[in-house]
Amino acid sequence: MNPEYAGGSLSGAFAALVRRDLLLAFRRRTELLFPVIFLLVVISLFPLGIGPSPQLLARIAPGVIWIAALLATVISLDALFRSDFEDGTLEQFVISGHPLTLIALAKIATHWLVAGLPIVLLSPLLALWMNLPTESLSVMVVTLALGTPILSLIGSIGVGLTISLKRGGQLLSLLVFPLYVPILIIATAAVMAASDGLPYTQFLGLLIAGLITSVTLAPFAAAAALKISLS
Amino acid sequence: MNTNIAVKDKPRKNALVLFIHKLGSPPWFYDFTGKFIPWLWLIFVGLAAWALYLGLVRGPADYLQGESVRIIYLHVPAAWASLLIYASMAVMAFIALVWRIRIVEILAMCSAPIGAAFTIVTLTAGSLWGRPTWGTYWVWDARLTSELVLLFLYLGVIGLYNAIDEPRKAARAACLLAIVGAVNLPIIHYSVKWWNTLHQGSSVSLLGGSSIDASILWPMLIMAFAVKFYYLANLLTRARVRLLEQDLRKGWVKDVVREQRP
């Protein structure tokens, strides 16, 4: 655990890890598309199942888009530590001398760039599909931009706990969905308030508070979970 | 009992600390709890019978809710217990993770099924009470929804514990999940409460602002105590069985089996 032997500073290690993971993600770019395509398919099922009435779709749009975003995130979460766990890279991270919390944070940041950001960028299109009023469209994008990092952060704890299981994916959704309840409530409330012409900044404030809290706490819990899984 | 090595090293140890250290030893824990588990069951049965007698036989029917008010004697104590057991599980999980005491890990994990059972009792009794009183089995009331999310949190802990093969690793993973859940539980509760007021206006209040009559309050409180004794008795019984299972190849279990100790 000699910091000098570990080589490089904390920020250097962080940047190197993010660069490596982004490169790996870019090499497997078809896999990256699966959660995005999943999101599009799920959203397009709703008008088919409920009916094409524009008013009805506009009413349920915030909830539908957010629930689809939750599902797409959970699907992509499994890739967060899976390959590193299977080929032993994760153990090398642990003995590298760098804090595992920092490594977890770097992995989560990359996961958001790869899986969360596409959802945010795609959301204006989804909002148009669901006939969401244009005045609440920007609020929808902002709630997703603030909320999807929280989903990745909280999800990373669940992934850390289930990584040693062969079929952890099914259990993962049971573990993380109850924890996602507050974000879903606050984010959809913000979009609905914007649709009704009501003030919505307080909801965005709550989301920012949630983001700050989860950025500070979740990497520690994820690192602890990984250590238990590796033991 | 066999003397502890730690005690020999530090002879001036406080009696309470000594007692806690002794409880960490599986054979000592097994013997000690075995002595008073029957008493816990006895107290539970006595208190529960008393509460049910007061509530079901002596107590009057409510002038608004009629006979269905009697469901409350089961529903409210179960709801309190479901929350209290989660809190106690989270505290034990924290102790288990920090000090790595195996018996506390087992106790925390044995709490989860009991707590989950109480949430199911709460939800079932609540919806049976809601049918005659509110006219529906289920409403997305803040309290009902929080209780449902609590059930999911319990199921997550139980699911994770059972999914990992190695018992100690499973216990530590599930303990961490219990702590994460405990941090989130107040946030979930208040967000659900606030979501409910936002979407539905004021919801039906379970007990209202009005004071409860003593004829209803007393059976409920006695039942709440009875339920705590049930939790303790059930928890310790489960923990003893789990200890025997885990230590199947150890000497003290062989002694237990050979001597037919209680």
Describe the structure.
The complex is a heterodimer of chains A (231) and B (262). Chain A has one domain. In chain A, 85% of the residues lie in helices and 0% in strands. Chain A has 231 residues and is an all-alpha fold. In chain A, helix 8 (134-162) packs parallel to helix 10. The model of chain A is unreliable at 1-5 (pLDDT under 50). Chain B has helices spanning 5-9, 15-23, 26-58, 72-99, 102-134, 142-163, 167-200, 214-246, 251-259. Helix content of chain B is 79%, strand content 0%. The longest helix of chain B is centred in the C-terminal third of the chain and has 34 residues, at 167-200. Chain B is mainly alpha-helical and 262 residues long. Chain B has one domain: Four Helix Bundle (Hemerythrin (Met), subunit A), CATH 1.20.120. The chains are: A mainly alpha (231), B mainly alpha (262). The A-B interface holds A 157-158, 161-162, 164-165, 168, 171, 174-175, 177-179, 181-182, 185-186, 189, 217, 221, 224-225, 228-229, 231 and B 97, 149, 152-153, 155-156, 159-160, 163-164, 169, 172-173, 176-177, 179-181, 183-184, 187-188, 191-192, 194-195, 198.
Number of domains of chain A: 1
Into which percentage range does the β-strand content of chain B fall?
Answer: under 5%
Quaternary structure annotation:
heterodimer
N- to C-terminal separation of chain A? 18 Å
Helix content of chain A: over 70%
Query: What percentage of residues of chain B falls in helices of 4 or more residues?
Result: over 70%
Structure summary, number of beta strands of chain B? 0
Number of helices of chain A: 10
Please outline the major beta sheet of chain B. Answer: none
How many individual domains of chain B?
Answer: 1
Structural class of chain A: mainly alpha
**Gap from first CA to last CA of chain B:** 16 Å
**Could you list the spans of chain A in which at least 5 consecutive residues all have pLDDT below 50?**
1-5
